[in-house]
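Troubleshooting entry. Yesterday's outputs looked truncated, so today I'm pasting the complete records for two proteins to confirm everything comes through intact. If either block looks cut off, that's the bug. Protein one:
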Amino acid sequence: MTFTDQATGTLPQPAATPAGPASEFAATATAFDTVPGNRRSPIDTRTTVPVLDVTIPVYNEERDLEACLRRLHAYLRSTFPHSFRITVADNASTDGTLEAAERVARELREVAVVHLAEKGRGNALRKVWLVSPSPVLAYMDVDLSTDLAALGPLLAPLISGHSDLAIGTRLTRNSRVVRGPKREFISRSYNFLLQSLMGAHFSDAQCGFKAIRADVARQLLPHTLDNAWFFDTELLVLAEKCGLRVHEVPVDWTDDPDSSVDIVQTAVADLRGMARLSRDLVSGRIPVDELRAALARGPLPAASRPQEQSPGGSLFGQLIRFGSIGIASTVAYLGIFLIFRGLTDPQLANFLALLITAVANTAANRRFTFGIQGRSEAARHHFEGLLVFGIGLALTSGALAVLHGFPAAPAPWVEIATVTAANLAATAIKFLLFRHVVFVRRGRLPATVAAPAPATAGLTAGAVDTSNLQTETAK
C-alpha cells in the first residue's frame, strides 16, 4: 500500500481514464474569471488530474460497499467522457468496510481509499475535498438510492461554469420518490423551516447526491463547522448567502429500507445546527461580506430596471420571517412598555419602548427578511426605518389618546390590549412599507460589472489537519 504524504496531505493521483470526445470547452484556468453575464470559467477537462472526484462516505458498510463501487465505476467508465476518481472515505468503521474498500482499490485503478479516525459525513467530505486535486467534487450515499442517470445533469452546469454547486432534489414535482410517509413528512418539514426561517431557496438540503466546483469549495469549506449530517445544509446556506448559484436536478430516488440513519435524531441535530448557523451569521464569525465580494456573481445589467427588482424572496417566506421578528419585537415592546409605565406616563413609555425596538427590528428585517447584507444603503434603510417607526408611534399614541379621552380611567388590561392592537396594525403597515419602499434598490447600476476581487489569504485560512488522513491505492 502507498500512503498519503503527511507533509502535503495530497492524495495520490491514479492514472487518468481515457478521455471521451473532445471537450467543447476551451482550456481555461479555474480562477474566478468572468465572461458575459459574470459566468464562471469552464473547467479545463484536459487536465492531468481526474476531472471528477466522487467521494463515498461510509461507516460500517462492508455488506453493500463493493457492489456500490463496482456499479458506480462501471457507470462512470461507460458514460462520463472525462477522467474520474472514486474516493471511499471510511469514517472509523469497526467492521470489514476498510478491507472491502482496499480489495476493490487493488483491482480498480480509479478507486482510492481514505481512512479517518473520526466519524461524521461532514468531517469526511471536508477533509477529502480540501486535499483533492480534482476541479469537480461530488459525493453520493453508499446505497446509491439516487438513480445514476441524474449524475450527468448534476455535473454539466459545474463543468460549463453555469453553476457553482449542484444538488439532487426529491421534493420537486418532477422528482420520483419511493419512501415512507414518516421520512417524507420530516424531510418536507425541515426544508420548509429552512426556507421560512433562514430564507433558503433550495428545495432539498438532505439528498445525498451533490457536487461542487473545487475552486468554490476551497473558499467555503474552511468556514463550515458541522462534522455530521448538518454539513450539507450549512454549506448550501453559506453558498446562497455568498451569492453563489445552486443548480437543482430532480431525481428518481428509492429509499433504502435497511438504512441505519436515525431520522428523528438527525432532525433534532439539524434544528440545533440551524440555531448555531444563525448565530454564526449574526455574530459575524463567517465573513459573508468578504466571501460574497470574492465569489458572488454580479447582477445582470437589466437588474437595474425597477421592474426587475426583487425585495428578497417570496412573499410567503418574507411574511414568515417578518412575523417571527415581529413577535419577538412585540414581546420586547410590551416588556419595555411595562417597565417604563411604572416610572412615567403612558405616552412617554410608549415612545421609549418603540424607539428601543425600532432600530433592532429594522436591522433584523434588513438582514433576514429581505436578505440585504453589507453597508450599501444601510444609512438610508435605517433613516426610513425611523420614519416608519414614526408612523407606528402615531398609531399607538393616537390609540392611547383616544382611550384616555374617556372620563373614566381605563383598566390596565384595557390599556395593554389597546397598545397591542395598535402595535399589530403598525406592524402590518411596516411590512408593506419595508417591502415596497424601504428595502427596494434604488439608482441605476453600471452597464458592466467588475470582476470579483480574488479571494484573500484570510478567506482560505484554515488548512485541514491531515495527520489522520491515509490514502491507499493499488500497489
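Protein two, checking that the full record survives here as well:
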Amino acid sequence: MSTAVVGAANARLAEVDAEGRTFREESREENKSQDESAGQEENNAEKGGEGPPQPVGFWDHRLKHVRHEAFGKWLLTTAVLMCFILGVLSIYWAVFYHVEKNLSSLVVYIVDFDGQVAPFENTGNAPVVGPALVKLGQQLVASPNPTLGWVSMPPSAFNNDPLQVRKAVFDWDAWAAVIVNPNATAMLYSAVQTGNASYDPMGACQIVYSDSRDDTNYHDFILPILTQYQTQATELVGKTWTRMVLQNASDPTVLRNIQRVPQALSPAIGFSTFNLRPFYPYTAIPSVSIGLIYLIILSFFSFSFYLPIHMKYLKPEGHPPLKFWQLILWRWTATMVAYLFLSLAYSLISLAFGINFSGGNPVTSETQATQISYLNPDAYGRGTFMVYWMLNYWGMIALGLACENVAMIVGQPWTGLWLIFWVITNVSTAFYDIDIEPRFYYWGYAWPLHNGELIAEPFSLSDVVEGSRQILFGLHSRIGLNFGILVAWGAASTVLFPFACYWMRFKNNHGLHEYWA
C-alpha cells in the first residue's frame, strides 16, 4: 500500500512539475509577444502608424541631413544660374556696347556731280553746292562726335552716271548715298538770273537708300544722322549762296528775280529722297524679326512632342523592339518630314496676313523706288512662296537638328538653358547688323538665323533673316549663300545625330544623370 501511495505521489509531483514548465513557457511566450507588440507600437508611433509617414516640422532632427543636402544644392544651382545669366545674357546686352565707335562702318557715299558732267562742266560759274556738301562730310568725319562713315567718291567711279550710284546702294556697296546732281549750282544761277519761278530746290540733291535691307539700322542709326546732315547742308549752302547773291543785290534785275524766286535763296537747295525698296507692308516685320524666334522655339519643342512616339519602337509591349540603328534612321526621317509640314504652317501665316507672294509690282528696276501701293516687291513672282517655304524649312533643319542633338547630349534641365543660349546668340547676330557690333560677334556670320534675313556680310538665324528679306523685298540676292550655309548646318547636325542617339541610350542604360538634384 505504501508503495502505491508513493507512486501516486510521484505521479502527482510529475504532473505539477510539467504544469509549471508549461506555465513558465507560456509566460515567456506571452512576455515575448508583449515585447514585440510594444516594439511594433513604438515603431508605428514613430512612423505615424500604418500607411505613409506623417509629415514633420522643417527643423525636425530627422531632416538634418536633408536640409544640408538641399541647402548645398540650392546654393550650387543658384550660382550656376547666376553665372549663366551674367555670361549668356551679356551677349545680347553687349551688342550695342560699341555702337558709337562702329557707326563709321555704315558707309554713306557723297558723290559730287555738280558741274562735272556735260553739259554743265563749262557754265562759267564755279560749283557751289557740291563742294559744300563734300566739305561737310569731311568735317563730320573729323569731328569727335559719333557719325556715319562718310566717303567722298568721284563721279568717275560710277561712269559719271548718278543711276550707277543708286545701283551701288542696291548692291550693298554703301548703306546710303548723297548725290549732288550735275546741274545743282547751274540751276541756282539760272533761277536768280532769269527769275525762273518753277525752280525746285529738291532737284539739287538726292538721298538714296533701301530701308528693307535692315529697317532697324536705318531708322535707329542712319536716317537720324542723314536728316541732321541735310539740315546742316541746307544751312551751309544757304548762307554761302545768299551771301554771293546779295553782293549783286544792287542790280534791279537781280532784286526782281529774287522776289519772283524766293526759294532760290531759302532754302536754295533740298534733297529728293529715293527709298529703293521700302519696308512695307508692316505685317512683314514678324517674318524677318521676332517671328523667327518662334521658328527656333518650335524646332526646339518638337523634340519633346515626338520623342515618346519614337520610343514606342523600343518598348517590347506585345512586340519585339526595333533595331536601334533603324530607330535612328526612322527618327531622322520622321523629323525631316515633320519640319517640312511645320515650316509650311509657319510660312502660311505670312501669306494669310497679306504679304505679297505673287509679284505684280510694276517697278522692277534696281535703280528705281518701288511703289508701296503694290505691297512688297517679292523676288520670284509666283514662285516666291515656294522659295520662302524652302528657306524656312532649311532654317528649321539648321536650328532644330542642333536642338535635338543638344537635348540628347545634355539632357534635362540643361536643354532649357540651351534654348536661351541658342535664341540669344542667333538674335544678337541676326536682328542687328554685325558691322556695328564689337568684333567678338563676327562668329555670327556663320550662325543659321543670320543667313535667313539679310544683313551685310557673308555668313550667319541671320541666314534665315537675310534670305527672308531678299525674297520678300527683292533685295540684292545672296540666296545661294544663305541656302548653302543652312544646308551645311543641317549636314553637320545630321552627322552628329546618330552619336547623340547612342549617347542618350548609353546614359539611360547606365543610369547617368547630368544634373545633381
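Both blocks look complete. Sanity check on protein two: The chain has two domains: 99-276, 283-510.
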